[in-house]
Amino acid sequence: MSAPVTAMASPFLANIPSPPQGVWFIGPIPLRAYALCIIAGIIAAVWIGSRRWVARGGREGTVIDIAVFAVPFGLVGGRLYHVATDWYKYFGPDRNPLDALKVWEGGLGIWGAVALGAVGAWIGCRRRGVPLAAFADAVAPGIILAQAIGRLGNWFNQELYGAPTDLPWGLEIYRRFDPATGLADPITGVAMDSVPDKIVHPTFLYELLWNLGVFLLIIWADRKFRMGHGRVFALYVAGYTAGRVWIEMMRTDDATHILGIRINVFTSLIVFAGAILFLLYVRGKREDPELLRGKPMPGDDDTAATPEPAEEPKATTDDAEEGKDEPKGSDDSGDERAEARSADGNGKDAKD
After folding, report:
1. Which is it for the CA torsion 72, 153, 216, 112, positive or negative?
2. Tens digit of pLDDT for each residue in 135-150?
3. Rounded to an integer, what distance in angstroms lies between the CA atom of residue 147 and that of residue 60?
4. How far apart are CA 144 and CA 163, in angstroms?
5. Which of 18, 159, 168, 237 has the fewest CB atoms in 10 Å of its CB?
6. From the CB of residue 326, how many other CB atoms can be counted at a distance below 10 Å?
7. How does pLDDT run across 181-228, given as a tens digit for each residue?
8. Nearest to 169 by CA among 37, 14, 7
9. H-helix or E-strand spanning residue 165
10. pLDDT of residue 49
């Protein structure tokens, strides 16, 4: 256990307190704030994406159907990226590899989530018969908003913070203990008092606010320029990574380093460059709304409303009888009746 760091009091405003705990128990069932924030973010992303998809011409329910594939893939991808880049936390000396499965304790890498989530979205888009790029444009604002909501989970877990600071918005970090054993437990433990162990930069809050700014930016840009063909998604990626670079460099939590720089800084720079190149070279307005309709699926509103093509009317005996009552003013009708009487008068020839 490291020695306590002297808390620096702010001379201007009260510091931001951390929650005294991030897990509550309902009997034996743990209620984890981190998980609740992730779920709330997913719900917000699906809701916003659905509204944008329908407004662009797509069918109601398409985003939910695709999310069934994209969300699980994204969660797995996010965890795999985190474990791969911070492998020593799970496979180093005196570590338990099974801890890599404990997603509820935090640790989801956005790059793995986006990469593998895109694979799941591709599967869902193929199933619905809609273009992946158009789907990505529709859900991009919801994804960055979900990331902002998810950062609140880091606040509850007292993670993703920076170096000590005396700024008025410094974040108070408390020591948490297991009430039953008295042992240190930073994730499921409870703060025994409100005296901070240290006051640090709330980098989780910086990223949360940055994400909200990117959310507003891409909503505005999409409405003004009617962007399509994946350009809204590329703008989201470029905007997010631009902020992630400087925020990542402020963090002091354990991370894998390359040349003394956190690995996520390199990842952000590479992804940022790719997003900018995409924005420069890909052109075009939004896709034709008809392309977003895709294949109708059971339960779609328009499958029941689509009228069947009308059948050609068939001649019946009643129609023939009605023809006998037509007025004599029609020359064609008179000729037809004359031919009919001639045929009746010569029944033998008709049978031959």
Report:
1. negative
2. 999 999 999 999 999 9
3. 24
4. 25
5. 168
6. 13
7. 999 999 889 998 889 999 999 999 999 999 999 999 999 999 999 999
8. 14
9. none
10. 98
Residues, the chain, total? 352
Q: Residue 112: CB partners within 8 Å, gap ≥ 6?
A: 77, 78, 79, 80, 81, 82, 84
How is residue 91 written in tokens? 């496979």
Q: Which residue has the higher pLDDT, 177 or 326?
A: 177
Q: Among the ranges 9-23, 36-50, 95-109, 315-329, which has the highest mean pLDDT value?
A: 36-50
What single letter denotes the amino acid at residue 203?
T
Tokens matching residue 255: 């991370």
Q: Are 185 and 192 in contact (CB under 8 A)?
A: no
- Six-digit token pair at 189? 């433990």
6: left (phi over 0), alpha (psi -120 to 50) or beta: beta
Tell me the C-alpha distance between 142 and 50, whole Å: 9
**Six-digit token string for 179:** 């009430």
Report CA-CA distances (Å) from 280 to 24, 134, 231: 48, 18, 9
Distance (Å, whole) CA 293 – CA 56: 10
CA 124-279-134 angle, 5° bins: 25
Enumerate residues 6+ apart whose C-beta is below 8 A from 58: 130, 134, 138, 289, 292, 293, 294
Distances (CA, A) of 252 to 114, 195, 242: 24, 21, 19
- Is residue 37 scored above 90 in pLDDT? yes
Fill in the DSSP letter of residue 287. Answer: P
- Residue whose pair of structure tokens reads 């695709």 in the numeric block: 66
Q: Which residue has the higher pLDDT, 25 or 315?
A: 25
Q: Which two tokens stand for residue 81?
A: 């990226």
Tell me the residue type at 27: G
